[in-house]
Design brief:
Order of helices and strands of chain A: HHHHHHH
CATH architecture of chain A: Up-down Bundle
Number of helices of chain A: 7
Strand order of the largest sheet of chain B: 1-2
Helix content of chain A: over 70%
Order of helices and strands of chain B: HHHHHHHHEEHHHH
Number of strands of chain B: 2
Structural class of chain A: mainly alpha
Strand content of chain B: under 5%
Strand content of chain A: under 5%
Largest sheet of chain B: 2 strands, antiparallel
Distance between the termini of chain B: 88 Å
CATH superfamily of chain A: Cytochrome c oxidase, subunit III, four-helix bundle
Oligomer: heterodimer
Shape of chain B: elongated
Number of domains of chain B: 2
Chain lengths: 229, 291
């Protein structure tokens, strides 16, 4: 980061964040990456819990009765595009273009908000169709995982909104490009977590029914041991 | 950046120039941006990022198309391609949108450390509870200890006989002494102990004063009605079959019950529970008392 700005347009503001650090990496940025690393553990355990209880629910509705893959593909696409608008916002901040920055941030917020809208719609539909948090193993693990992800997105929306308001009200060099950069890291992380959730819960797990005699995990294990012996 | 109108034009010009220079710099390196070695701190622009966005969009579309054919939905064949595609997406976002490719390698190490730890945690959980034990229920249910009393042989694993190998109906009086010695509470028959304990029947069936499950029909008075369910079956035969082959006959409103019950529900759970011949007979004996 330290020499990134010097290769580009005249820095829009005194580079306050370019203080010396022992690692050569800005402390706030380092902190963000450490946090994202630890958040991998957080989501890792929630995803694993879902996978462990996958196909174990003895009462419906089961995923195959209720999961809507086409709609979620659209919302996945929307979230992906919000990553694109976010990275463009970061680029605008770096080149000191405050107006562009605001435009990209607002676009990102709209796309992220649309994603949350899809999720609210989905959760509500599930509730109406009889899938409540306590209905079965599927619903508990599903709502916990996707709910925490939705909370991350919502938090990100507030964060981006703060940046946009900051940029609109005080155009003289706030937020700094580092401020935007760090928010961007968080935003992209939320996107990659969804990439995993979409694949596992929707594309692969979205057609699960009640427990079968040969659980998928058992079949997988038999397959592995079959290969070895 | 100031908005002072006097400076605006100048700034815009500067910006424009800067942007051009920027773009030229990037133009040189579209392939370098994605594939080449680049100095720390390089960034992409509209071109690189929109290319990437289109690429990621296409991957998402392909992922969706993979599971459109009904035969492939939920099948094992699609797992590998889907996982590979999303791993590609994952690392594209990390490397380029989060520009980790152009950062101090320490950040890579920090993030990958978290990621690997997270994967290890997830893998261990899945292995422990999903793979080495066929199902969490199959693991825990044979180990359930009755609330009041410990059944000595609860851990004994005895194969359940196939229906045609069934022993002839035993005389309940002979069976009583064979029941787990330390198991029966004063007043509770071995069958009742099993019902609320190891056999887990109580989680689905209600018997006044014994159990309050709601997923299956209440069993109060089952001995009086069981003989009428299937013509040619005695109450005892019907109850035994209900336990060994829950799907052979699905009780419902046609039997005067308050609702139709779900077929396959009881059998799905029973598949994870091991009952010995003695257990089954004890349960039958217990249920036959419920007149």
């Amino acid at each position: 980061m330290a020499h990134a700005d010097t290769t580009h347009a005249p820095p829009a503001h005194p580079p306050a964040h370019e203080e010396e650090t022992t690692t050569g990496i800005n402390h706030r940025k380092l902190l963000m990456w450490v946090f994202l690393g630890s958040d991998c553990l957080f989501f890792g355990s929630l995803i694993a819990t879902y996978m462990v209880y996958r196909g174990q629910s003895i009462v419906g509705p089961y995923p195959r009765d209720i999961i809507d893959v086409p709609i979620t593909t659209v919302s996945t696409f929307v979230l992906l595009m919000s990553s694109f608008t976010m990275v463009m916002g970061v680029a605008a901040a770096r080149s000191g273009n405050q107006k562009r920055l605001i435009q990209w941030l607002v676009l990102t917020i709209i796309l992220g908000g649309t994603f949350i809208g899809f999720q609210v719609y989905e959760f509500n539909l599930f509730r109406v169709e009889g899938l409540r948090y306590e209905t079965n193993l599927f619903s508990s693990t599903f709502f916990t995982l996707t709910g925490f992800h939705g909370a991350h997105v919502t938090l990100g929306l507030f964060w981006l909104a703060c940046l946009a308001i900051m940029a609109a009200r005080n155009p003289a060099g706030r937020p700094s490009d580092l401020d935007v950069d760090i928010a961007g890291l968080y935003w992209h992380f939320v996107d990659i977590v969804w990439i995993v959730i979409f694949t596992l819960l929707y594309l692969i797990g979205g057609f699960d029914g009640p427990p079968e005699a040969g659980h998928a995990a058992v079949q997988g294990w038999n397959w592995v041991t079959g290969l070895i012996s | 950046m100031s908005t002072n109108p006097g400076q605006e034009a100048v700034l815009a010009q500067q910006e424009h120039a800067a942007h051009d220079e920027h773009a030229a710099h990037e133009d040189a390196g579209i392939s370098q941006f994605f594939f080449g070695r680049v100095p720390e701190g390089v960034h992409g622009g509209l071109k690189q990022y929109s290319l990437l966005a289109i690429f990621l969009g296409i991957i998402t579309l392909v992922e969706f198309l993979i599971i459109v054919p009904e035969g492939l939905q939920g099948s094992g064949v699609v797992i590998a391609p889907l996982v590979i595609l999303s791993v590609i997406k994952f690392f594209c976002v990390v490397a380029f949108f989060m520009h980790l490719k152009f950062e101090n390698p320490l950040l890579w190490q920090i993030f990958v450390a978290g990621l690997v730890l997270g994967l290890i945690v997830a893998l261990s959980l899945v292995l422990l509870f999903g793979v080495f034990r066929p199902t969490p229920r199959a693991f825990s249910e044979p180990r359930i200890e009755p609330f009041e009393h410990h059944v000595e042989d609860a851990h004994a694993v005895i194969e359940r006989p196939l229906p045609d190998e069934l022993p002839p109906p035993a005389n309940p009086a002979d069976l009583a002494p064979a029941a787990p010695a330390g198991g029966a509470a004063a007043g509770a028959s071995p069958g009742q102990t099993l019902f609320v304990g190891t056999a887990a029947c109580a989680s689905c069936h209600t018997i006044q004063g014994v159990a309050q499950g709601v997923l299956g029909p209440p069993l109060d008075g089952i001995a009086s009605v069981a003989g009428n369910r299937i013509s040619g079956y005695s109450a005892e035969e019907y109850i035994r079959e209900s336990i060994l082959e829950p799907d052979a006959y699905t009780a419902g409103s046609a039997d005067g019950l308050s609702q139709d019950y779900q077929e396959g529900l009881m059998s799905a759970t029973m598949a994870g529970i091991v009952l010995s011949d003695e257990d089954v007979e004890a349960l039958v004996e217990f249920l036959l008392q419920l007149r």
